[in-house]
Design brief:
Layout (H helix, E strand, L loop, with lengths): L6 E4 L5 H12 L3 E6 L2 H10 L4 E4 L5 H13 L5 E4 L15 H30 L5 E5 L12 H23 L5 E6 L18 H13 L4 E3 L2 H11 L1 H8 L2 H6 L2
Helix pairs in contact: 1-6, 3-4, 4-5, 7-8
The structure holds NADP nicotinamide-adenine-dinucleotide phosphate (NAP).
NADP nicotinamide-adenine-dinucleotide phosphate binds next to helix 1 and strand 2.
């Protein structure tokens, strides 16, 4: 797809992958709107990049999503909805059977899964009315193979991956022109995984891969190790599982 003169809404765009994407989309000649929960973080971005429009909005709250839709509509609407906001609640060595674990799982689903469906439902008619438009949903390498350390997070991303595939088919079946992309990042060097010592790619590398995928109309955009794990999992699923869940990871849960 063409990535110039588009208006792009990035949820969770004040840091990490979302902020890097905002910078790169801006440099390509697009208008960028970002959201986030933390107003201070949004203001910091605004100071550095006055062209970026910032709107405080929590992806897990319906009233925020509706208010966001109204504000974006008043600004002239969008061509691309990039669902980037996501959370992972660490299990904190709590194992499976306890209340905190369930609370974390519910919150992950609220942001990573229901939050995305809510946004897509609100924006779909606007996107359908555009000449060339798209939805980008952010899943993860862990939607292919789950991590024992991030079991419920992996499940939330796997749910989003299935929804994304069927949303694409549904829109195609009604001849809607909205493209649906799925971005599967591997481990990326951001705040979310700051405590992880494993190999990470930079946000620049990830977003370069995203932009290349969008330009080539690659529906499922796997970057770095996500590509390798996808192929390995098809032929040697046990090996892929063991790679994602290296032994030291299990011991943390004991
Ligand atoms: N980093 C990785 O290794 C990795 C790997 C695979 C997939 N991903 C996915 O990539 C996406 C971006 O992750 P990241 O690594 O860039 O994370 P990050 O550094 O933690 O940034 C996430 C951003 O989302 C915002 N956010 C969180 N919850 C939100 C909510 N309820 N409503 C609105 N904004 C919210 C945060 O800002 P506020 O706190 O101000 O709201 C923050 O700016 C996520 O969907 C994540 O699951 C990341």
């Amino acid at each position: 797809m063409n990535l110039k003169n588009k208006t792009i809404l990035i949820t969770g765009g004040a840091s990490g992958i979302g902020l890097e994407a905002a910078k790169q989309f801006l440099a390509l000649g697009n208008k960028v709107i970002i959201t986030g929960r933390n107003q201070m973080k949004l203001e910091t971005v605004k100071k550095q990049f006055p062209e970026i429009i910032v709107i405080q909005s929590d992806a897990s709250k319906e009233e925020d999503a509706i208010a966001l839709f109204e504000k974006v509509n008043a600004l002239g609407g969008i061509d691309i909805l990039y669902n980037n906001a996501g959370v992972g609640v660490p299990p904190l060595n709590l194992g499976i059977a306890n209340k905190k674990h369930l609370e974390g799982a519910v919150y992950e689903m609220e942001v990573n899964y229901f939050g995305v469906i809510r946004m897509n439902n609100l924006f779909i008619e606007m996107l359908k009315s555009r000449k060339e438009s798209a939805i980008i949903n952010t899943t993860s390498i862990l939607s292919i193979v789950p991590s024992v350390l991030e079991a419920t997070y992996s499940a939330s991303k796997s749910a989003l991956a299935f929804y994304t595939k069927t949303l694409r088919s549904h829109l195609q079946s009604i001849n809607a022109s909205v493209k649906v992309f799925e971005l599967l990042p591997p481990l990326v060097d951001t705040e979310m995984v700051a405590d992880r010592q494993d190999k990470k790619i930079s946000t620049t590398q990830l977003v370069n891969g995203l932009i290349e995928g969008l330009k080539n109309n690659t529906e499922t955009i796997r970057v770095g190790d996500s590509k390798a794990i996808y192929i390995l999992n098809r032929f040697f699923p046990k090996k892929a599982y063991n790679l994602i869940n290296a032994k030291k990871e299990y011991t943390k849960l004991k």
